[in-house]
Write a structure and sequence with these properties.
By secondary structure, the protein is an alpha/beta fold. The chain has a single domain, classed as Nucleotidyltransferase, domain 5 (2-Layer Sandwich). The chain is built from 5 helices and 5 strands, in the order E-E-E-H-E-H-E-H-H-H. A 5-stranded mixed beta sheet has the order 3-2-1-4-5. Helix 4 crosses helix 5. The longest helix has 32 residues. The two termini are 29 Å apart.
């Protein structure tokens, strides 16, 4: 299964495509930042995020998309802008027929680092280890996007295993 993780931001939106094999091995497919200039009109920045995410989806054909749930914003204006970027990411996925999963930052960090209050450097380090990368992903937004994808793949795999075992118990 292949997942696109998206770390929405108003200056940098990170994305990362990760695949999980039947044996649970994770593979880094592609990742990168979508850099946005605050000098550009918001509509143009949103269009760039949409176009890049659609290109990644078209190019790598993920099965699902996972994004970070909004948890905190410095002010209302920032929260609205972040919400617009999240909406664009969801729209790109939806128009491609892909389901979207949302995860709280605490759940993402717990799934990747084992500690929900891990700092950015710890997330970058563990993402690099889990994906067998030569160096931690930069910028941190890219590592966060990969962490979101990893969190979703682990969560989805665990739920599938539970459903299979419940089905086996029910059929006995």
């Amino acid at each position: 299964m292949r997942t696109l993780g998206v770390d929405c931001g108003t200056e940098i939106t990170g994305y990362g495509v990760v695949e999980i094999a039947a044996d649970g091995a994770l593979t880094h497919v592609e990742s990168g930042p979508i850099r946005l200039s605050l000098r550009e009109p918001l509509a143009d920045r949103l269009a760039r995020v949409f176009e890049k995410l659609r290109a990644v989806i078209d190019g790598h054909q993920p099965d699902q998309v996972a994004i970070e749930d909004v948890f905190y914003a410095v002010n209302v204006k920032s929260a609205f802008k972040l919400g617009q970027v999240r909406g664009i990411a969801m729209l790109a996925a939806s128009l491609s027929g892909l389901p979207v999963a949302e995860y709280a930052p605490l759940a993402i960090k717990s799934a990747v680092v084992g500690y929900g209050k891990a700092d950015k450097a710890q997330v970058q380090h563990m993402v690099a280890r889990l994906l067998r990368l030569d160096a931690p992903p930069e910028p941190a937004d890219v590592a966060d996007a990969l962490a979101i994808a990893i969190c979703h793949l682990h969560t989805f795999s665990t739920l599938q295993r539970q459903q299979k075992s419940e089905h086996l118990v029910a059929t006995k």
